[in-house]
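#struct-help
A.M.: can someone run this one for me? Single chain, 470 residues.
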Amino acid sequence: MSDFEPILTRNWNVPDGDTLKVYESRGGYQASRKALTTMDPDAVVGVVKDSELRGRGGAGFPCGLKWTFLPKDRKETLLCVNGDESEPATFNNRLLMEKDPHQFIEGILIACYATRASTAYVYLRFEYIKAYRILERAVAEARAAGHLGKNIYGSGFNLEIWLHRGAGAYICGEETGLIESLEGKRGWPRIKPPFPAIEGAFRKPTVVNNIETLACVPHILERGAAWFKSIGTPKSYGPKLYCVSGHVNKQVCVELPLGVTARELIDVHAGGVWKGRKAKAAVPGGISMGLLSAAELDVKLDFEDIRKTGCLGLGTAAVTVLDDQTSIVDYLYNTSRFFAHESCGQCTPCREGTSWMYKTMKRIKSGGGRLEDLDILQNMSNNLGIMPGTTICGLADGAAWPFKNALAKFRPEIEEYIRTHQDPSRRITPLQAAIASGVSADVAVRHSLTVLGSAPAPAALHSADGGNRP
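D.P.: on it. Structure tokens below:
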């Protein structure tokens, strides 16, 4: 670790590091010039494929392999860059755009040349106003200097980059939801196949890459695939930007080799847990990935080891720390509220499941919880997402995984919360209990009134049967 040389963040603390002048003075655009003037597109794809660069957006799919899925006989190719960084507590892409935009633009240039794309669309999260303005200026600088536009470096290759701001929807981080929104339609995911590589934006073959993924590409071209694979862990190569936030003394974004542990991130880079407390749990890569317990903080945060803990994956590598005085119920309540709000509503299991999870957690938090609610939540989380093949995209899985992890690792704490946080006004009435047991409405009314000690009036029973009052 001591001999690791940061590359993605090397210009972050350099004065005017976001300008073309500084970027070029530090070797910028040499990799793109090398690619366009001395290599053919297939050779560039081969180098990236050999590096085994995996996508940094969450799924970890091999970047070079993705580029090979495009049809050989295509007449036009588009590149869509996913800058809709909406996963809670994730801010590495924002910093890449704000602090070193030309590194990212050079990555776009090389990726477009490799895939023969002459147009690139950068889809930006709406709230990233500062990043948008910096990118606007950087694109204009690059075009004026001949790094974009017509006949770049005299190679005959043309490229234009267009910036497109979203409208604040988490679902547009999913690649086909992003494409729908880019086309001016409602931002919700498409049924696949066809996949974007065959029919993507504007029904043309399309590559969708993440910002951090593309920022790695110039360095792979400059230093080689072997160098890239010398960093990280097996099957998880290269540097990674890790965000650390939550209950820590210092919220940071640091560049480290893939495979660093959550404990090192918390204790060394984030200054430890705040207020002298201990960590109860940590979210390893955005709330959709699930939870690490305190005993699991030594797991490697790469694409492989993290799955051994029952988490969905590495995700965005945005670690959020929960201290030992934080209730897991509060965590589940906030998580369920987020996913219920952000579900696009296209798929019934996700639309209804996220809503009922939130309603259940809201009731538990307000003192009306029952122990059997946890079994119901477990059942919903097991049947909610795309893994059972019930939804179009992975949002449902992301909503279910925090519950799967929390119920597996913290169920006794949640049960204790339910037992000790009972509000008498939220108790289930005899009528509700009878109906929940499958009793018909008229019998349920009789049962309820009997328990309450009042005789059922014929008119009331008649009305319960659906008839008219006399």
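A.M.: thanks! Residues 328-420 form a domain with the de novo design (two linked rop proteins) fold (CATH 1.20.1440.230).
D.P.: also worth noting: Residues 243 and 253 are 4 Å apart (CA to CA).
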